[in-house]
Amino acid sequence: MRIPQLDRRVLYMMLAVVVAIPLLVSVPLPPPAITPPTRSFYETIEEVSADAKTKDKLVIVSCNFGSGTLAENLSQLEATLNHIVSKRMKFAIFAFNDPQGRDLGGSTAQRIADKAGYKYGEDWVNWGFRPPQGIQSLMKAMVNDLHGAIGTDVKGTKVSTIPVMANYKKADDVGLIIEFAAAATHVYWIQFFQRAGSSPIATLFCPTSVMATEAYPMLETGQLQGMLVGLKGANEYETVMQRPGFATRASASLSYSHLLIIFLIVLGNIGMIQDRKRQQGATK
Q: Other C-beta atoms within 10 Å of 20: how many?
């Protein structure tokens, strides 16, 4: 049977097998080259956690993504939270563009926090979701009054009564902002919060691959200190951390599936050329 006559269901089955195997078992793949945005992302967290002026400040983990970009954004979030808790940094989960981010970010943080010995309310907190319509006003209010602006956490507890928030009351008490998003929501932090205090706050961005191109100019100007570009960025980050996870396995699936598609394209073209030669020979 020639490739042009091959049942497409067979092709889909081949692709499904190639995608599934690296997700189920470890498949060898050369480590990725670490791009400058990923390297800067990693080094920024290292620097903030080591600097005496910022190591004890709050990290805002902004989760503005939903189930549609789970493979990219959740992989980025898991790798980043593992880095944060390894440095014993306090953090707050927050969402304002997609309500799913509150739950996806919160459940992921809870799972990683439990493994690291972090306690909710003492080492981290989930501020919950706030509607995007008033986010500009909210961020402006957060600059001088985090407790008043946020109000309550995801459980309905007043933020001012939560132990981990006792020393974090304004923008000057925030040492790092990390935005995980499927849209350009990082611009709100840059416009209304990043430089509103007495000193600029380091800001990192974790977009989906298709959104990354819009953020590169902000890397060039120093408004962003680092970026993880989609699943590829998460894979690079796991490599730098020497802690392979879902992104590493999923990247292997993508790589091998691309190789399969290229192989089938080449094979299909060879079959088409052979068919043409047969037809030309038959007409002579």
A: 11
**How many Cβ atoms from other residues are within 10 Å of residue 101's Cβ?**
27
Whether residue 78 sits in one domain with residue 140: yes
Question: What is the rounded CA–CA span in Å between residue 122 and residue 161?
Answer: 11
Q: Within this chain, do residues 146 and 184 fall inside the same structural domain, yes or no?
A: yes
Please answer whether residues 21 and 138 qualify as being in contact, where contact means their C-beta atoms are separated by less than 8 angstroms: no
Measure the CA dihedral 81/84/86/92, to 10°.
Answer: -80
Q: What is the pLDDT of residues 62-106, one digit of tens each?
A: 999 999 998 899 999 999 999 999 999 999 999 999 999 999 999
Same domain, 203 and 262: no
How far is CA 270 from each of CA 2, 74, 259, 273, 274, rounded to the nearest angstrom? 10, 41, 17, 5, 6
Specify the number of domains making up the chain: 2
Least Cα distance to 209 among 75, 79, 82, 84 occurs for 75
Q: For residue 33, what are the contacts with CB-CB under 8 A and spacing of at least 6?
A: 236
Residues 233 and 121 in one domain: yes
Q: Hey, which bits of the chain come out as E strands? A: 58-64, 91-95, 124-129, 174-181, 202-207, 226-227
Among 219, 199, 240, CA closest to 80: 240
- Claim to verify: residue 65 and residue 190 sit in the same structural domain: yes
Tell me: do 263 and 173 sit in the same domain.
no
Residues 15 and 118 placed together within one structural domain of the fold: no
Q: Which residue range forms the structural domain that includes residue 219?
A: 31-244
Q: Is the pLDDT higher at 255 or at 6?
A: 255
Alpha helices for 25-145 (secondary structure H): 36-50, 70-86, 99-116, 135-144
10's tokens: 């067979």
pTM for this entry: 0.86
Quick check: helix, strand or coil at residue 223? coil
With 0-12 / 13-18 / 19 or more C-beta atoms within 10 angstroms meaning exposed / middle / buried, residue 151 is middle
